[in-house]
Amino acid sequence: MADSLRIALAGLGTVGVGVINLLAENGGVIAGRAGRPITITAVSARDRQKDRGVDLSAYGWEDDMTALAARDDVDVVVELVGGSDGPALALARSALSCGKGLVTANKAMVAHHGMELAKAAAANDAPLRFEAAVAGGIPVIKGLSEGAAANKIEQVQGILNGTCNYILSQMESTGADFGDVLKEAQALGYAEADPTFDIEGVDAAHKLAILAAIAFGTKLDFDAVDSTGISAIRSADISQADALGYVIRLIGLADCSSDDSGNRLFQKVAPCLVPKDHPLARVDGPTNAVVADGNFSGRLLFEGAGAGDGPTASAVVADLIDIARGMTPPPFSLPVEQLAQSTPADPDGRISSVYMRFLVADRPGVMAELTAAMRDAGVSIESLIQHGRHDENSGEEPVIVAMVTHEGPESAVTRALDLLAGSPALAEEPLVMRLLG
Ligand code: NAP
Ligand code: HSE
């Protein structure tokens, strides 16, 4: 058997320890498929003394993880630290500039610096892979860039954040409180070091930007992703959606169209009402799913665990197996200099139905004010419900008004909300969610 592929692990948290356990348990299978063993030679993390439940005594240790890149006994650096900049980026840059391979699960870093890293990889003839950065254990990057390589991809949409999906589906099935379920997701290792990245849609936006570049062959443009998280969703929205035949999911959606002025890239992450018969509606817990429409393949559905030690380690090691086999296609499917320029599409030009939830004062004239704003902005209401107060004696307590619109331009909804902005009838900002499909 050929020489081992020698790897260094930076980061020994949920994913790093997952990789150690996976290589230990499946080493024989992996060596057979890779054509050679994959062995860990050195590791690094912040705290050398921490008990991680694995034996690290056989590996070299570096306090400064950047030193991993310079070691002669390392072929590939595996970055499992996290953070878009800082030590992770310093390590990634030095690994590639030393001509070492780089495997990372760090979607924040790839979303912000993917173009620079891909150029460095090409310039130094070094492999760069990041399957685990999008949708955890699901081989969606490989699926789109290899399995569906013959297609023009017209649209990708998906559930890209396990923490949010876990929270929404637990709130739905148990009626549990948002904060309690978030704590559970953190304890299970799904959430980012800063969980606001999960619940405010930033993590899903990182993944969507990477996916869009691969699906459409466009330059990665994370700054153009419009993202909204799930923190404003109340259990009343979940029950209202249920009564209407929908579930609420945080959806990332991207498509790319061309006109005389070039490629128009639409990228949006937001909670949506998903019809119960849509393939994404039955995706529960930390599961992720991506739906991609190819012009010859038709609709493709990728589904699996989007977070957690085992699934994420599985994607990291799959990248290592490819490198061990010498299979190193361009990281964004096309050579980086061939990725096309795009400009963000105008979101107001899109046609959709939306759910709007208002928290309003329960007094005469308020409903008339809401419906007048819809009329004046040209929004057609399909259904409208006001939830009465539980306690008729609770005087000034605001009540919920939920409406669903007929399909129409999103610009009309924006106009209606502008008309209502600052109204004393509104107790808080309205919540708006698109109906998917
Ligand atoms: P984690 O459990 O927080 O582990 C991070 C590791 O990095 C820890 O071992 C920590 O060292 C080390 N570290 C952090 N800052 C460091 C620094 N300044 N210098 C040296 N070491 C440092 O994170 P994780 O969940 O494994 O995630 C790792 C990466 O995988 C992130 O990019 C994340 O977004 C990505 N990812 C995670 C999942 C998931 O399900 N968890 C899924 C897909 C992708 P100590 O242990 O000594 O503190
Ligand atoms: N925090 C991420 C999630 C981990 O919840 O999906 C996987 O990328």
How would you characterize this protein structure?
- With 437 residues, the protein is an alpha/beta fold.
- Helices cover 34% and strands 25% of the residues.
- It has 13 helices and 19 strands.
- The strands form 3 sheets. Strands 7, 8, 9, 10, 11, 12, 13, 15, 16, 17 and 19 form an 11-stranded mixed sheet that branches. A 6-stranded parallel sheet has the order 3-2-1-4-5-6, sandwiched between helices. Strands 14-18 form a two-stranded antiparallel sheet.
- Strand 9 and strand 10 form a beta hairpin.
- The longest helix is centred in the first third of the chain and has 17 residues, at 107-123.
- The protein binds NADP nicotinamide-adenine-dinucleotide phosphate and L-homoserine.
- NADP nicotinamide-adenine-dinucleotide phosphate is lined by residues 11-16, 45-47, 50, 65, 80-82, 87, 105-107, 132, 136, 189-190, 192-193, 307-308, 312.
